[in-house]
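sanity check both lines:
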Amino acid sequence: MMASAPTVLDVLWGFSIVANAAAACRLCQLGLHRTYRFFFAYLVFAAIRSLILLPFSVRSNAYVMIYAATAPILWVFYVLVVLELYSLVLRNYAGIYSLGRWALYVALSFSVAVSILTLIPSWGNERFRLLFWCTTVERGVVISLVIFLLLILFFLSRYPVALSRNIIVHCIVYAIFFMGISMTILIRNVVGHELMRELNEMVMVLSAACYLVWIFAITQKGESRIVTLRHNWAISHEQRLIRQLDNINATLLRAAQRQFGREPRAGLRGGGGIRSRGEVSMNREFDQSDEIVYPQLPHDV
């Protein structure tokens, strides 16, 4: 009996896995896996997870159980990657970083709770309830991270924080990535499993496109090229905004010191970096010292 020809979805999934693995290899090749440690670990885990799921039918119990068992690990990586990105953006502002991190934890808890409560009326319509709860919780996590990433982008559009081009690209692509995933999961939970094939194809195209951007847009030069999200800052206005940030940060640090007896740490890396275009110009010797990869959403069995 001849094997059936691969479907469009099979081809897209295979290409997504290859692009996923290529993005991880690209980070290693550039030596950036040490800078983006959690992102690199996420890429490796996502590729392995997809390869484990690949032999199984999306309608099988084995597929659904593996999918559900590994989903919480994926959610943890989502949060770690966003916190890693956030710490790189605010590496010189430990006080603001600490406040935003706790705000993210609260937003995650709130969003997951709201996602569950709003979809409880649909509980009786699901034939596979484990899958229903899995995708519901994931939607809450992803929506929280989307909002947090959009707030980071808004912050970068309002303040002239100088960052490497790679960090800005990473932030924009990840926000798009999560927005697409959250909308896909929302449609699946509201409409049901009737559109699963179309939704899976959309997820595969989105994930593959994001991997390709990470492969070609994240470069070694992009790590040392210092830019701001907006380019039309007047130097005097830029320096005034940076002083505002310094004052806010100092106030939060003093509050944290009174509350906890010590200053919060500045994310994964300490301060000392260049913060604005003005500083770059004054220091030219700057030393640069679900498939969401998402396997396909499983069909109800």
